[in-house]
Amino acid sequence: AAPLVVARSTALAAKKGLLIRNRASFEGARNLDAIVFDKTGTLTEGKFGITDIKVSDGFEEDEVVMLAASLEAQSEHPIARGIFEEAENRSIKLVEPDEFQSITGKGLQGRVDEIRVMVVSPGYMADENIKYDTETFKQLSGEGKTVVFVLIENKLAAMFALADKVRDSSKDAMQRLKVLKIRAMMLTGDNKQVANWVADQLDLDEVYAEVLPHEKADKIKQVKQEGLKVAMTGDGVNDAPALANADLGVAVGAGTDVAMETADVILVKSNPKDVVSIIDLSKATYKKMI
Ligand code: ADP
Ligand code: MG
C-alpha cells in the first residue's frame, strides 16, 4: 500500500502548489530541525520601490536616475526593477550601456554614454573605503529600507533608498515553525539594519546579514555540521549553491530558473507558509508507511 500513499501525496502536494522534484528530500522534511530563509523575494515580496534619493552636490537627480536605471535595465535583481521603474515614472529615456558587468552580491558596473557608472551595496563602499553620510544611511536603513549607492566616475553621486514589504504569509509561517520547534533563520546579502528590521517583525531565531552567495552555502554546511537537518528556502541565483547544499532545498516559484532547477521542492504560490505544508505532508505521508 505504501507506493499508493506516496503517489497520492504527490497529487495532493501538486494541488497545494508544491512541486516535488526530489522524493528522498521530501521524505526527510518530516525530521527538519532548522529552516533557513533568504530575505529578499522570499520572506519579503521582493518588489522594491524607491522612497528616497539623496543626491550629492554637483549632480542632477534625473541624470543620476537615467545613468543608474540604464545600467539596472540589464539586471534581473529586484533592486534593479525598482530603479528601472523610477526612471519609467519620471518618463526618463534610457540608454543602452556600452559595457555592463555585475559585481556578485554587491551590485553592478558599466559604461553609459561613455560615463563610468556603478550601483553598489554598503559592503562595496566599505571594501573600497568610499565615504558617505552614515547618519542618513543609518536613518534610512533603520526604517527597513535597502540603500544602494550610485557612483559616477568613481564619485558618490547619490544614495537611493528602496522599500520592500514583509509578506503577511511569512508571519504565519514563523508562528507555525515556533509551534513545531523548528529553528527559523534568515540569510541575506542586504545590510544588518534592514535584516534586523525584518527579523524583528518576524521574530526570527537567527539572522545573518551581508552574506555573499558562496557564504550562504557555507552557512548551510555549518548548520549541518552541528548535526541539524536543515532546509533552505530562496528565490535567487544567489541562493542556488545553498539550495543545493541543504537537506531540503525549496525554491520560491516566482524566482529565477537557476533556483528552481536546483531545488528539491518548488513553491508554486511563492508563499513561505507552504514550507510548513511540506513538513505536514511529509509527516502525513511517511507515517502511514511505517
Ligand atoms: P539578497 O540576499 O537579499 O537576495 P543579494 O545577495 O542579491 O541580496 O544582494 C546583496 C546586496 O548587493 C543588495 O542588498 C544590494 O546592496 C547589492 N546589489 C545586488 N544586486 C544589485 C543590483 N542589481 N543593483 C544594485 N545593488 C545590488
Ligand atoms: Mg533573494
Task: Summarize this structure as a short list of keywords or feature phrases.
single chain, 290 residues, alpha/beta, Rossmann fold, Calcium-transporting ATPase, cytoplasmic domain N, 2 domains, 7-stranded mixed beta sheet, 6-stranded antiparallel beta sheet, elongated, binds adenosine-5'-diphosphate, binds magnesium ion, P-type Cu(+) transporter
Plain-language structure description:
With 290 residues, this protein is α/β, with parallel strands linked by helices. Helix content is 44%, strand content 24%. The chain contains 13 helices and 13 strands. It has helices spanning 2-15, 23-28, 39-43, 61-72, 78-89, 122-127, 134-142, 168-179, 192-202, 213-225, 240-245, 257-262, 273-287; strands at residues 18-20, 34-38, 49-55, 99-103, 107-112, 115-120, 146-152, 155-163, 183-187, 206-208, 230-234, 248-252, 265-267. Helix 12 links the parallel strand 12 and strand 13 (265-267). Helix 4 (61-72) crosses helix 5 (78-89) and helix 8 (168-179) packs parallel to helix 13 (273-287). The protein is elongated and about 70 Å long. The structure holds adenosine-5'-diphosphate (ADP) and magnesium ion. Adenosine-5'-diphosphate (ADP) binds at residues 38-40, 72, 75, 77, 79-80, 105-108, 119, 121, 146, 148, 188-190, 236, 238.
